[in-house]
Amino acid sequence: MIDKTTIAAANEADEARLRADYDALAEQLDRRGIDIAAVKDKVAGYGIAVPSWGVGTGGTRFARFPGQGEPASIFDKLDDCGVIHQLTGATPRVSLHIPWDDAAPADLTAKAEELGLGFDAMNSNTFSDAAGQAHSYKFGSLSHTDAATRAQAVEHNLYCMELGQKIGSKALTIWVGDGSNFPGQVNMTKQFERYLDSARAIYGKLPEDWRLFTEHKIFEPAFYSTVVQDWGTNYLIAKELGERAFCLVDLGHHAPTVNIEMIVARLIQFGKLGGFHFNDSKYGDDDLDTGSVDPYRLFLVFNELVNAADTPGFDPAHMLDQSHNVTDPIESLMNSAMEVQRAYAQALIVDRAALAGYQDENDALMASETLKRAFRTDVTPILQMARFEKGCAVDPLVTYRTAGYRAQVAEARPVSAGGGGGIV
Ligand code: LRH
Ligand code: MN
Ligand code: MN
């Protein structure tokens, strides 16, 4: 963790500037009938999970260029996640991927407790083969033509739930790479039926207080067809399985022109939005930093979430899922968590009564301007004040660099191998 005095010293140097900026924004928002303290409290109470796999440097199938002091185990990864939460106060939980993060539950909970972290959804991996497993997932997992391979994939998901129960997780996220690479390679109907059978077997063992999230993705690793390719198929799965099955929307898993905020609205309307994997993209599942390419789209997603906030039982899971190939993953994850908070704050200050009026009058331009007005407002002082009051860093990036955490861990951690392709 980072020395508390480093955080306090950086905050103190910035306090007068922060108070002046916050007061100026408070005055501006007050004129718009918005109470800044109420927005700040909501932002302060907001949390997003970080993916354990995000703190290691990612790569492409062409190459991976490791950074310094990369985490060598799940416990190193948790240390890095602890720093992210210590500085931002926005990432109280970690989402684990099994078998990548498999470890003794007591050790996981002890480490998490030491760092003030909890565990979010468990993620099962049946898209690659683990050492020594009996049946290969080369031609699929939950939808494989071979019953023994499907049974092995189901069993792995049950194991993820067992482990998750011991560490306080309350959800399982399933994403499979199953699909095909050639027209004619699979019978699409039979393949989906096999997927559904396997998913039913997993859902049947879902603990009472758990939710099951299924995640769709348009393509990759299968390049001709994918069994859970879009939100329509995902909705069918959630509907078939039952009331504790929901759809997970990973922002990067859609074709570039798809209207994701509208998918979000539809899933909310029919009670099947389970949660998010936030990231950004330009071409496909690029796993770029959240808000780095299209912050307006992120805001539009949050606009739908805030709009639905009063829906009974509405509680989607929020997680980041991105890959950091050229940056320090801790910096990227801190920045992304803050970008999500920013989108949330901007959505909170939308004048919803005015928007509804313009919608009723079919005043397209003023409706759009109402959203833009909120989006254009620089809510940074709200985010900073929320962190300041929690004893987190007003400026996490600057404080992180000043603290020299990466150089310190580089001394203790082994040098990580680069070279060939990485998967995330
Ligand atoms: C697939 C995905 C899914 C996996 C993660 C590693 O592209 O988004 O969520 O679990 O990446
Ligand atoms: Mn994902
Ligand atoms: Mn993805």
UniProtKB/TrEMBL annotation:
Query: Which is one GO molecular function term here?
Result: metal ion binding
Cleavable signal peptide = none
Query: Which Gene3D superfamilies does the record match to this protein?
Result: Divalent-metal-dependent TIM barrel enzymes
Q: Which keywords has UniProt assigned to this entry? A: Isomerase, Manganese, Metal-binding
Q: Which PANTHER family match?
A: L-RHAMNOSE ISOMERASE
Classification via NCBIfam families: L_rham_iso_rhiz
Q: What is this protein called?
A: Xylose isomerase
- Specify the species: Palleronia abyssalis
- Organism phylogeny: Bacteria, Pseudomonadati, Pseudomonadota, Alphaproteobacteria, Rhodobacterales
